[in-house]
Amino acid sequence: MSRRTRAGKPSGRSADFTGDDASVTQEEAGLHMLDTLDATAVSPSAEAAPFGAQRVLVCSGGRYESQANRQIREAIMDGWAECLGEENVHAVHISGAAASISRLRPTIVFAIGSYLPESTYFGEVCREAKKIGAVTAFWATEDPYEQDANYRIADDFDVIFSCDRWGHNFYQRDQVFHLPLAASRKLHYAEIDETVEKSIDVLFCGVAFTSRKDIVRNLMPTLRTLNIRIVGPGWGEMGIGFSDARIEKAQLIELYRRAKLVLNLGRSLHFENKRFMIAPSTPGPRTFEAAAAGAFQLFHEDTYELRRYFKADEIPTFSNKKDFDRLVERFLNAPELRLDHARRAQARTLRDHTYGDRIRDVMTILRREKLLA
To answer: Where are the stretches annotated Disordered (predicted)?
Structure first.
């Protein structure tokens, strides 16, 4: 087991920093995804940080990649472009990454997403990267829900980043670091408009996982008295105010504008997490995305982990119905108080929790570990 250290203290081991198409060849798949992602996923960099002559190849996109992970990939690309300049950032589908490395000759090969699919190509990608002396890193954006399967990448990459604080302790190797997910200035930021009518009392958007349904059922005596909108696959069966609809990103930002209170309910769907049953700890990306969009959030949690990222005057928390009722009574009819919290949370996110911030942390770690000059 790796020895763990506090953030920013070099140990040479690990630290804590605050996610096929069989008919085409790997080369064709790589070039197709490169053209597609380079055209749409990378925003112009305002002022790339002085990280030297580095070039990164971001590879992702397994067969079962979710829409949420596709959006996270786009946001991560934007963070790399902010730090290195868009001309030094390329993306390729994981199935074509190995064939593209010799042509693009990156100095960093950065894989992201899930390691759950049986055929992940990661070993082949890392072997090709080592041939040209490129650093290899993997950002596990699905931890801890797939933790039992981390052996599939444990020996391939120079460095592993885990999006979950507790989950990153369960890799049986050195050079594993906690790297939370974040928000994108380009994709998630929205100016707060005080003139928009707040017609929704309580909003939640997300899949109706069992743990989320349990929380909502517990809050129903209060929710029934409010104008609620709870949207996402699996919610429709619960009656008025609930919908199975899938919400696009632009629609979600508009709903945030119209909602007084936005519920933040973590997920608990474990695909491969039976060995240690690691409880998720670090807030998911929606927390940072909603804050960047100017939403006022009420965060459900059983621990104080959120306070590593946001203060109580930015995002209040509740862990039971009594706490929730108290927050509703305090904030529902207090627009100025909600606005103050939303502005503080948005400012905190833009200052500390963008993908540009996370990629700067990545570069700091790679240099500190002497993997980059």
So the answer is: 1-21
